Amino acid sequence: MKVSIVSIRNFRRLEDVQFSLEDDHTVFVGPNNSGKTSAASAFRLFFRRGEFTINDFTVACISEIDKYGDDPSISLPAIEMDLWLSIDPDIEFGRVFSLIPNVSTDFEKVGIKLRYCVKDAELLRTEYAATFPVVEGKSRKTLSHFLSLPNNLSRHFAVRFFALETTNETTKATEIEADEGRRTLNSLIRVDFIDAQRNIHDQESGRHNRLSVAFAAYYKHNLEKAADNEEANRVIDENNSRLTAHYEAHFKPLLKTISNLGVPSAHDRTLRLVSSLSAQDALQGSTELYYVDAALQHELPEAYNGLGFKNLIYMVIQISHYHSQWLSTEKGRELCQVIFVEEPEVHLHAQVQQIFIANIWKILRETAKDAGEENAAPQLAISTHSSHIVDTVEFDKVRYFRRCPMKGQKVSEVSAFNATHVLNLSDFRPSSEVKPTLFEKEEAKLSPDEKAVLIAERQEHDRRMTLDFLKKYLKLTHCDLFFADAAILVEGTVEKLLLPQMIGACARGLQSRYITVLEVGGAYAHKLSSLLAFLGIPYLVITDIDTVDAADARRACRADKAGTRTSNAALKAFLGKSMRDELVSLKYENQIVENRACFVTFQRPVMIKLDGADHEMHGRTLEEAFVYENLPLFQEKSLSFGVDFDELKTAEEIRDSIYNEVRDQNFKKTEFALNVASSQSAWRTPAYIEEGLQWLEKRLSPPVPNDAAPNSSAKVAV
Questions:
Q1: Element of type H or E holding 20
Q2: What is the pLDDT of residues 342-387, one digit of tens each?
Q3: Within 10 Å of residue 499's Cβ, how many Cβ atoms?
């Protein structure tokens, strides 16, 4: 049996989410405060019978609870978790019998609902009114405040259990008696947790953080078999006898002194020190973990190895411990096990992160196989902020936790996203660039049905190719897209190197956001659009106009030449324009595309003052546009470009020289970017980039209450 689908409602920021779990491992990703930890916490509270608090309800639910305090016609909300389990009916029927409302129906999955809800709503209102009576002219404490007082919530709320049945695309819930529901749940699923705060550090004071303690716990719970105990006890008994003799010899004078004091008295027994070590006590209290150099046989104590290695060992011990505990349960073992691992990347460098995630489930599978139960491997649910871990797992195993407004709220009405939407990347289907109109002439002889089939086949092939590109791209770039508030897609290295300074100069609000910068070029930016739309991540595309001769697409030409085309695939895909004149005439609002989630910006004509007169300059690339808009700095040699501007007398000479210099095969773009980035000159961000950055800044800055404090943190991922 496996847990296949999980639904959680009204819990913290998980207002209404659903996600699937893979049979082996599932990875939870998303920005900070997007609900990944809350998903694990919901399991902890329902399965470990933890104490819910009033703050475990969503903000909207707390508002409804307060309304009920004054209006009993309002229904009190409940925290719910639905679990759908895939089963083998021939083997597991008996355990899940109480979850099957109709035994005559063939089934391969069963469902159970856990609902944390009020036991007696009227009694709750009565006690609330008695504790906080209505006094005329005074406001009384809210019902949520009453429930936040010690023991009030646990006295009035409890977990109820329901069997779930799906019929005609609707789900019916049939209540199960509480004790039977708890027994059924406990017999089906075991849930274990490895938290992010694992208390492994380098301090030598105290022993609670030592790995030897972890080994001792593993020994106690997993290795105390009869044969093992007999051998361990024989060794310990021999040492206990020797230590007792040693104590008698060395403590004889002290014991004689004590006896001379009359303690114990003459009729009492004599004192004797006896060693009483046990195997577990010896391992936990008197054993050190050493790292041995295989070549030199030199031993170093535990404290001399890094936190990463300690953390890796600790996680493996804990996961193996939980798995072994489950496998060794001799009576009433749960049918499946889920282990939540939070932030395994803590203290681990990139390579070790990838090794861990790539191998841990294989190790567990081998452990189950060695135990003679090949299918008894746990399901791992791993939450992470590491792009290196995401690089290693299959695309379909990722679950993306996206921040979103609460139900009924518009983006323009909120200052923060207080809810979560979970996306299964296995559901992602990229859009196709293949258009039906492309085949009108080529396939004119085909019948409409044949043409439709051909178009469908080519579109599906294009989708597969795009998906393959995205998977490879994300792996090659160690992309942190899944943890970002927004993305900026740039042409190349120059933009990527200069972007942090440009953001600081003209869009400082972005410094308080986590922005991922992806170097994709003009040929591939649009291929990311369907993934970004699926994830709901706003993005800015900074690209080049890349003008070419209208009659020969292989022949580049200056951007100020009328009647030319663009060779930039992204501009054509996003804006639907290919002619230079059409592109430069676009209005600001025409550059906002993809359901207003994307802004596409490129070089536009700018007016430059030269010898007291205004001249229109139009860069074809970033380098050209940058030089045009910072021309005085290059003329006075505060910045260098490779062109002697003293010899250039006219605007046309300047245009030709700048264009030819950038086009020259010896022009070093990265060196140019580094020189600009390290310059102390107050250079200006090109207007088209400034416009795009300010759009993104505004897009990420919904209305904020007047008394809200600004966020001063800063991070830009490049």
A1: strand 14-20
A2: 988 876 777 778 777 878 878 888 888 877 887 788 999 999 888 8
A3: 21
Contact between residue 671 and residue 679 where contact means Cβ atoms under 8 Å apart: no
Region class of 406: left (phi > 0), else alpha (psi between -120 and 50), else beta: beta
DSSP state of 580: H
Q: Is the pLDDT assigned to residue 280 strictly greater than 70?
A: no
Q: How far is CA 457 from CA 328, 394, 421, in A?
A: 52, 25, 32
Cβ within 8 Å of residue 434, ≥6 positions away: 455, 458, 459, 462
pLDDT in tens, 7-30: 999 999 999 999 999 998 999 999
Per-domain residue ranges of the chain: 2-200+315-404, 211-305, 432-476, 477-718
Whole-prediction pTM value?
Answer: 0.80
Residue with tokens 């804990």: 318
**What is the rounded CA–CA span in Å between residue 96 and residue 609?**
80
Token pair of 650, please?
């006219």
Give kind and range of the element (H or E) at residue 624: helix 622-629
How far apart, in whole angstroms, are the C-alpha atoms of residue 514 and residue 714? 8
Query: Which structure tokens are listed for 31?
Result: 């920005």
Q: How many helices (H) and strands (E) does the chain have?
A: 24, 25
Burial of 611 (0-12, 13-18, 19+ CB in 10 A): exposed
d(CA 16, CA 80): 9
Collapsed DSSP state (helix, strand, coil) of residue 263? coil
Kindly state the average pLDDT of the residues 123-150: 89
DSSP 8-state secondary structure symbol assigned to residue 579 = B
Percent of the chain with pLDDT over 70: 78
What CATH architecture does domain 2-200+315-404 belong to? 3-Layer(aba) Sandwich (3.40)
pLDDT-derived band of residue 228, with 50, 70 and 90 as boundaries? low
Adjacent-strand bridge partners of 287: none
Token pair, residue 594, equals: 């993809």
Between CA 567 and CA 285 the distance in angstroms is 71
**pLDDT tens readout for residues 600-637:** 999 999 999 888 889 999 999 999 999 999 999 998 99
